[in-house]
């Protein structure tokens, strides 16, 4: 193979890391915050809920100081809708505005660019009670909420993300604690919700450009390259099916303002076509993102042969595991990849392929807003956490990001998951991702002190050297 001369990461590359409000903040009912679906969701009983999480709400200054010590250029966090507008619509909670305003100022004090996700799974419960995203009124509620954010923080926030992992909410709402009951029965409603989210997102793209001259905004789905199990045409077709339904449905709508044809025909076949109101397609066309943010943890592999019925039910309720769609695609175990302790396949080369696929399809600048490895970290003597496995995972992915840049992909930032330990979507606090350890267990809050992991020091050096020391 020809060895390429590697291109450097751009000088202004946005190195940082990510979190989301409900997974890190705690203070679930403080200072006027309303309830979100995550505060009352169907959460597994053997792991912690999100009530205290990493108590970032009360420790944000300490946490931001540690991020600054690592040299972060950006910090991706989400705003809890229910802190700003407790009931989803109506009254604004000044204490919530104050919290995020202070957080933003704290970041700017250290020259850390705030990268703000407007909505990361935690829909206000009041809206859910009225039908959630299935109810068209939630579109207006989201646009109104976005306008409040632009008015309050638009003077200081340059980079905005609309909706985190809309595709995972639709495909794996059960794993994320968003759905109750049999997912098959709720599918029609899901694709209606999906349509409403797409419309709301486009309206918010548009609003952002109208209100804030220099701000940039983009979607934040979870995108993964999809491998066919073999070169058998049926498998290749299955991979194409899955990629259309998992990836391109979301990004084609966000960028091109149209429904992906393969995904549309899937919805048609299943009888789950959403109601599209007059003017909706024009809205989708009008709102344009400035960049694409995406989360990547692993690739996916599928097969198209459904003869062996025994292999049918292998879905484990996890957002990174393919949920089979009969006749279209079925999960395949990729025997070429190692797995994390939690069974997620590790595929750095798939990351490079994913970067290329997105860039060549949409030709927009890209930023990675999640990528990382969840593990049972061990706190050793003298406050040491030797998370070499995390360093190894991130190192390999950053290397592939650099190769993608060398391939011509316009990548302007990298924010692994997560800046600090936080509560995983459905596997508790002990599935850790952070550079900073939070000293608590599932049900014992201990002293919640912050401890720098080995990866903290490693990442500091990566940032300092602009990706030269890996
Ligand atoms: C993504 C989400 O799906 O993956 C995050 O955007 C989540 O909220 C992350 O935490 C890791 O998944 P998990 O299930 O290990 O928390």
Largest sheet: 8 strands, parallel
| CATH-defined fold name | TIM Barrel
Q: Which structural class should the secondary elements be placed in?
A: alpha/beta
CATH architecture: Alpha-Beta Barrel
Radius of gyration, in Å, reads 21 Å
**Rounded mean pLDDT score:** 95
Distance between the termini: 23 Å
Specify the number of helices. Answer: 15
Which ligands accompany this protein? 6-O-phosphono-beta-D-glucopyranose
Q: How many individual β-strands?
A: 15
Report the β-strand fraction as a percent range: 5-15%
When the domains are counted, the total is 1
Relevant CATH superfamily: Glycosidases
Which strand order does the major sheet show?
A: 5-4-3-2-1-13-12-7
Uncertain regions: pLDDT < 50 for 5+ in a row?
none
**Share of helical residues:** 25-40%
**What are the secondary-structure elements, in order, as H or E?**
EHHHEHHEHHEHHEEHHHEEEEEHEHEEEH
Outline type:
globular
Q: Tell me the quaternary state.
A: single chain
CATH class: Alpha Beta
Can you offer a commentary on this structure?
The chain has 470 residues and is α/β, with parallel strands linked by helices. The chain has a single domain (14-228, 236-300, 344-464), classed as Alpha-Beta Barrel (TIM Barrel), CATH 3.20.20.80. Helix content is 40%, strand content 13%. It has helices at residues 21-24, 37-40, 56-70, 81-84, 94-109, 125-129, 137-153, 166-171, 183-211, 233-256, 261-270, 280-286, 348-362, 388-407, 454-464; strands at 14-18, 74-78, 113-119, 159-164, 216-220, 226-228, 292-295, 300-303, 330-331, 338-339, 345-346, 366-370, 411-414, 436-438, 450-452. The strands form four sheets. It has an eight-stranded parallel sheet. Strands 6-8-9 form a three-stranded mixed sheet, covered by helices on one side. Strands 10-11 form a two-stranded antiparallel ribbon. β10 (338-339) and β11 (345-346) form a beta hairpin. α3 (56-70) packs parallel to α5 (94-109), α9 crosses α12 and α10 (233-256) crosses α11. The longest helix has 29 residues, at 183-211. The radius of gyration is 21 Å and the shape is globular. The model has no long low-confidence stretch (mean pLDDT 95). Residues 20, 23, 164-165, 168, 222, 295, 319, 370, 374, 417, 424-427, 431 line the site of 6-O-phosphono-beta-D-glucopyranose.
């Amino acid at each position: 193979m020809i060895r390429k001369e590697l291109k450097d990461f751009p000088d202004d590359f946005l190195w940082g890391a990510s979190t989301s409000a409900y997974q890190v903040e705690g203070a679930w009912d403080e200072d006027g915050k309303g309830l979100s679906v995550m505060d009352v969701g169907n959460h597994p009983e053997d792991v912690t809920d999100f009530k205290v999480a990493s108590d970032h709400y009360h420790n944000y200054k300490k946490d931001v100081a540690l991020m600054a010590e690592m040299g972060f250029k950006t910090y991706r966090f989400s705003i809890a809708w229910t802190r700003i507008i407790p009931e989803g619509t109506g009254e604004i909670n000044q204490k919530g505005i104050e919290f995020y305003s202070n957080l933003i100022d704290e970041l700017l004090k250290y020259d850390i660019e705030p990268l703000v996700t407007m909505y990361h799974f935690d829909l206000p419960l009041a809206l859910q009670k009225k039908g959630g995203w299935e109810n068209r009124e939630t579109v207006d509620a989201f646009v109104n909420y976005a306008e409040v954010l632009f008015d309050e923080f638009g003077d200081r926030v340059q980079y905005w993300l609309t909706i985190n992992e809309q595709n995972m909410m639709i495909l794996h709402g059960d794993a994320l604690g968003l759905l109750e009951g049999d997912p098959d029965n709720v599918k029609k409603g899901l694709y209606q919700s999906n349509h409403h989210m797409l419309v709301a997102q486009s309206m918010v793209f548009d609003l952002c450009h109208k209100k804030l001259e220099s701000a940039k905004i983009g979607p934040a789905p979870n995108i993964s390259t999809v491998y066919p199990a073999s070169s058998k045409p049926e498998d290749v077709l299955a991979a194409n099916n899955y990629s259309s339904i998992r990836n391109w449905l979301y990004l084609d709508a966000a960028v091109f303002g149209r429904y992906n044809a393969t995904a549309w025909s899937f919805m048609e076949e299943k009888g789950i076509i959403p109601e599209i109101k007059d003017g909706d397609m024009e809205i989708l066309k009008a709102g344009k993102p400035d960049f694409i943010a995406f989360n990547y943890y692993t690739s996916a592999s599928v097969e198209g042969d459904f003869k062996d019925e025994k292999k049918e039910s292998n879905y484990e309720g996890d957002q990174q595991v393919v949920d089979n769609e009969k006749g279209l695609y079925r999960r395949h175990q990729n025997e070429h990849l190692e797995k994390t302790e939690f069974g997620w396949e590790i595929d750095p080369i798939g990351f490079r392929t994913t970067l290329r696929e997105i860039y060549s399809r949409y030709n927009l600048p890209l930023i990675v807003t999640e990528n990382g490895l969840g593990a049972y970290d061990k706190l050793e003597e003298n406050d040491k956490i030797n998370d070499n496995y995390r360093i190894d995972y991130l190192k390999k992915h950053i290397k592939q990001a650099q190769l993608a840049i060398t391939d011509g992909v316009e990548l302007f930032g990298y924010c692994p998951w997560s800046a600090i330990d936080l509560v995983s979507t459905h596997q508790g606090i002990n599935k850790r991702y952070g550079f900073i350890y939070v000293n608590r267990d599932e049900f014992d809050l201990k002293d919640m002190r912050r401890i720098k992991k080995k990866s903290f020091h490693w990442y500091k050096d990566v940032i300092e050297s602009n990706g030269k020391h890996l």
